[in-house]
Amino acid sequence: MKKKLFFLKSDFDLVKNSSLDEVKKLSLISEMVRYNTLVIILIANSGHLGASLSPVEALSVLYHKIMEVSPKDPRKEKRDVFILSKGHAGPTVYSVLASLGYFSEKFLHRYRKLKGLGGHVSLETRGIEANTGSLGMGISKAKGHALAMKKKGLKNKAFVMVGDGELQEGQNWEGLQSAPAFKLGNLVLLVDKNEVQSDKKVDDLLPMPSIEEKLSSFGWKVFKVNGHDIKKLIKIFSSLNYQNKTPKAIILKTIKGKGVSFMEHTKTFKKKGKLYNWHDKVPDEKKFKVALKEVQERIKKLTKDIKTTKRFFPEIETYFKKEKINFAKESVVEGFSRALVKLGKKNKNIVVLDADLAGPCGLKPFEKKYPKRFIEMGIAEQDMVSTAGALAQQGFLPVVNSFAAFLTSRANEQIFNNQTEGKKIIYVGHLAGLLPATPGKSHQSLRDIALMRTMPNLILAEPCNSQEAEEIFNFLVENVNEGAYFRLVIMPGLGEIVLPKNYKVDLGKGAVLKEGKDIALISYGPITLPILLETSKLLAKKGISAKIVNFPWLNRTDFSWFKKELSKIPLWVVVENHITYGGLSEEIKKLIKKHPQLKRVKLESIGINKIARSGQILEILKYYNLDSQSLSKRILKLLD
Prior knowledge:
Blueprint lengths: L8 H8 L5 H23 L4 H5 L2 H11 L14 E4 L5 H11 L37 H15 L5 E6 L6 H9 L8 E7 L8 H4 L5 H8 L2 E6 L3 H10 L8 E6 L11 H4 L16 H18 L29 H15 L3 E5 L9 H6 L4 E3 L4 H13 L3 E7 H7 L1 H9 L5 E5 L17 H6 L4 E4 L4 H13 L4 E5 L23 E4 L4 E5 L1 H17 L4 E5 L8 H8 L4 E9 L4 H11 L7 E7 L8 H7 L4 H12 L1
Parallel strand pairs: 1-2, 2-3, 3-5, 4-5, 6-7, 6-8, 8-9, 9-11, 10-11, 13-14, 13-15, 15-16
Antiparallel strand pairs: 12-14
């Protein structure tokens, strides 16, 4: 018999039909949802535990008691709508939806896997009302639903949940200011006030005095409640007048990591200077068993007064299945981090700006060494970029950091404005490209090269390993007068890349990683280049000699270098860790067109031509035909 790892819909139905009073029923349902949320992340070995555990009670009460929903007809016109703006809590929403029967538990086994549940919620999943993950959009989307309901004469409600740290994102305040003007009494804002951002307290990062007073001054009716008190949650949701003309905001006082003793932030921060460890970290097997056992013990106490089936309780089982990949020993972020600290000592004008991502972006060493030159801007990319522009005008060299998907698109206008002012700024776009794909489309940066190639006076570069990351960043700081966009993959490379011994970073020039005469395979970065080296071995078995070229400059090409290294090879194939247009291949196409000496060269481009999807590394590479087997077949067709 197959092992049962989750509480099933039938288990939730058993509880709902039991003799327990309403508060005990919803308390039990909440713990079962918490258990399933933990197991979802355990199986995926990826996800945001702390942020997923804090809103469990609120979402359980909302869906199982308050909202008018129809799992059999998720798009029924007369329905209440819930928008999860704080996308990190996706596993909790999935657990609640499965408990109501929106989809079977088999999908819970496929969180962050291809054709499963996305790393951040998406309309592809039954019961989800909006694609989120990029923070700050949820209030506007919920406002749109509330407005539509009002125009249709429906008495339904729109709920939206944001995190307290998320409120640093500017779009929230546009939505908050305008909602009262539309007289949307059917709009309810839930602020999950768990007091913690990635690893620091919100008030230690960027204090926000009295959210309640701000919302009240805009015209919202504001309530405060313990977000884990089932009785009080039922009372507050049930008492609201959803048909008047005043939007409501409920401040939920919660604990990040609630329900697992060693994850609760209130215990973590008892030690001075301690950071929160469970934002996106998955515990080892021993700790996970402790977490599951704690929740299960509470469930056992709550079920002692009802008759349960023999298979009511899931089995506690470690379920770690890691992909077997020979990752590089160091990521490009580590090389960048080292260079940043060294250059900080030499150049006192370097200031580092961060958007609440200091840990994953490798900025902690600089922050520790030069705290007065580290500027934490919070989750506010547009504000950060424009602030950097003013710092540059005052003679500083700003190094601006965020995830590439957010930095290059959300603050694109601000970057353009800075570039027209003529001062040097270095923008570092982390989590660039397709991988890791587990967070899903909102975080996969596949348009950033195209967006940044349009910027005046900006050099674009992406290193292939930690050594090249260090050398290119040094070059960008010390050897050029223009600003730069430094594109970094956040995870370790898919294999070690060894640069030639005599290789020296020089603008517009690359490095030959493997000699060949029949075809030139050109790429950049630590994801595609190791795959191409493997592809060349498969091609060699077919008698094809492939030259593998690392070309880190995404919008600068040195004709003399290309002529010397590649002009005798008739077919060049650029493999992009990016969409198929707007990337390096277009830069090389311009080079070929400009120089008659290269007119015999045929250029082909291989990249991503579908909307990004959530998934594990190997399955995603195969899905996009970017694994070595698929690439070798595609290249052989091009040669034919």
